[in-house]
Specification:
Blueprint: H1 2-12, E1 33-38, H2 44-60, E2 63-68, H3 75-88, E3 92-95, H4 103-111, E4 115-119, E5 131-134, H5 137-152, E6 157-163, H6 171-184, E7 200-202, E8 207-215, H7 220-233, E9 239-242, H8 245-258, E10 264-269, H9 272-280, E11 285-288, H10 291-306, E12 321-322, E13 326-328, H11 341-347
Parallel strand pairs: 1-2, 1-3, 3-4, 4-5, 5-12, 6-8, 6-9, 9-10, 10-11
Antiparallel strand pairs: 7-8, 11-13
Length: about 350
């Protein structure tokens, strides 16, 4: 798996021209140091990203410092980590932003000469950082939305939207939610705002009702609590969108405890545990993203820039560099490209 992703990252890095100086040092003989600041250190996605950064740093001869917020949404913890990176004289920062509250600290870091790359979560506005390496989160949501609409085959959809936050606006949150609705054929209205769509209407195959929009903080217990609230509002829910796989697992716990019929549950992540949940039927389909690739590309890019090389460029038509996404399900839907759990397991990340 690591060899396959490494080869993919090297091929992808063709967009990054070769560095002008030596492998281990920037101009003037100064060692290159990089900080990786993730949203937290408990979600398997970010744990994998940290491992990938360590591996890439070891391979590239770069010093890596790992930091994280205490929990998803902890902006203050990330701000402190950014300030620490500036004080150390790091060449650059890789960050999965916890929210807009980190933007001023990122600006100060860039003003101090650090190159800042966002991973996974593009900030708003995108030019807050030098570049973002991320999944196309809107496309990831759109894939599970299209799959859900096709799988329903015209049945009325009663939808629970289990999002990330309700107290801050983060691009990964609204991009996935709004992508899912768009894939369903529902008018999402403002694509940078959750919850402003019509609560009833028509999707591409029939009629829909949005039963709830509830925050999960991207955690299993948050998913369980959010789903409990949703079922209280409408026990007839038959479609559950979740921001990530831990939230999906928690949602299924609430569904089973309620004893009702099993709805379609879709998610985004593609970790090894999530792929197993798809195989077991806990999650119906998930969009798989690639955190190892994000981390490896980020470390390589900062080393290249610090060594006198050119800066990476965004993908055509996007304001970030797209690291790819694939729909994983064992129940393919006509017209929706997907891979099965056997292939998803080959490409998954986290504990196998």
């Amino acid at each position: 798996m690591r060899r396959a992703l490494s080869a993919l990252a090297v091929a992808t890095l063709a967009v990054l021209p070769s560095a002008a100086c030596g492998d281990n040092q920037a101009g003037g003989g100064k060692d290159i140091s990089v900080a990786l600041i993730t949203k937290n250190s408990t979600n398997p996605f970010f744990v994998t990203m940290q491992d990938g950064a360590r591996q890439a740093a070891a391979a590239e001869g770069v010093k890596i410092t790992i930091a994280a917020g205490k929990a998803d949404g902890d902006e203050a913890g990330q701000v402190q980590a950014i300030e620490d990176a500036v004080a150390r004289g790091d060449a650059g920062i890789l960050i999965t932003p916890n929210g807009p509250g980190v933007n001023p600290a990122i600006k100060k870091a860039r003003d101090a000469g650090l190159y800042v790359i966002a991973l996974d979560t593009p900030p708003d506005p995108a030019n807050t950082v030098d570049i973002t390496f991320a999944t196309d989160n809107f496309k990831a949501g759109e894939l599970i939305g299209k799959w859900t609409a096709t799988t329903l085959a015209g049945k009325p959809a009663v939808i629970a939207l289990l999002d990330l936050f309700n107290d801050k606006i983060v691009s990964v949150d609204y991009s996935r939610d709004q992508g899912f609705l768009t894939g369903m054929g529902i008018d999402a209205k403002d694509r940078k705002r959750n919850g402003d769509e019509e609560k009833t209407g028509s999707y591409s195959g029939g009629t829909y009702t949005i039963a709830c929009n509830e925050p999960t903080n991207g955690a299993e217990d948050g998913g369980r609590t959010a789903m409990e609230r949703c079922l209280t509002k409408n026990p007839g829910i038959n479609v559950v969108y979740t921001i990530n796989e831990p939230a999906a697992v928690g949602a299924q716990q609430a569904i089973k405890a309620a004893g009702g019929p099993s709805p379609i549950v879709v998610s985004i992540d593609g970790g090894c545990d999530g792929v197993r949940q798809v195989g077991a039927g806990v999650i119906s389909a998930t969009s798989q993203q690639y955190p190892l690739k994000m981390a490896e590309l980020g470390v390589k890019a900062i080393k290249q820039i610090a060594s006198g090389g050119q800066k990476p460029q965004v993908s055509p038509g996007l304001d970030f560099y797209d690291t790819g996404v694939a729909l994983v399900t064992d129940k393919p839907a006509p017209g929706v490209e997907s891979i099965d759990t056997a292939k998803g397991t080959e490409l998954c990340w986290g504990k196998r």
